[in-house]
């Protein structure tokens, strides 16, 4: 990776942002957005599900993914923050105002 090609978020962070914006997104679409393979997205989502950060739900013939907003982040530097805090930071106020988005202020 060239010195100017890095990003602040890991692929895990990018996948969480993609799922927050579109819980019904296909793995293929997330892979294209993040810039990784569909298999890599499947592995990341599987790990996020097994660790309790994402809940996988069947919606007809497709899967839908719901973030677990009250789950705390893993690293000691961010252990005080929850998934909802990360999504609010990464997606901004517009995403927080969408129905079903963690951190959304309910009326």
Question: Care to describe what's here?
Answer:
By secondary structure, the chain is an alpha+beta fold. 43% of the residues lie in helices and 11% in strands. A two-stranded antiparallel sheet has the order 1-2. The chain is globular and about 40 Å long.
Calculate the mean pLDDT score and round it. 88
Q: How far from one another are the termini? A: 45 Å
CATH class assignment: Mainly Alpha
Instruction: Say which CATH homologous superfamily is assigned.
Output: Winged helix-like DNA-binding domain superfamily/Winged helix DNA-binding domain
- Report the oligomer: single chain
Number of helical runs?
4
What's the helical proportion of residues? 40-55%
Shape annotation: globular
Please identify the structural class as seen in this structure.
Answer: alpha+beta
* Strand ordering within the main sheet: 1-2
The radius of gyration is: 14 Å
Assign the CATH topology: Arc Repressor Mutant, subunit A
Please report the total strand number as a whole number: 2
Which second-level CATH architecture applies?
Orthogonal Bundle
The main pleated sheet reads as: 2 strands, antiparallel
Sequence of secondary-structure elements = HHHEEH
């Amino acid at each position: 990776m060239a010195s100017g090609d890095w990003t602040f978020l890991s692929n895990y962070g990018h996948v969480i942002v993609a799922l927050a914006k579109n819980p019904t997104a296909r793995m293929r679409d997330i892979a294209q957005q993040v810039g990784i393979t569909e298999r890599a997205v499947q592995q990341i989502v599987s790990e996020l599900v097994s660790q309790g950060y994402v809940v996988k739900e069947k919606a007809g013939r497709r899967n839908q993914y719901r973030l677990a907003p009250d789950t705390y982040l893993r690293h000691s530097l961010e252990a005080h923050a929850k998934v909802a805090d990360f999504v609010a930071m990464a997606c901004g106020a517009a995403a927080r105002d969408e129905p079903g988005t963690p951190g959304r202020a309910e009326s």
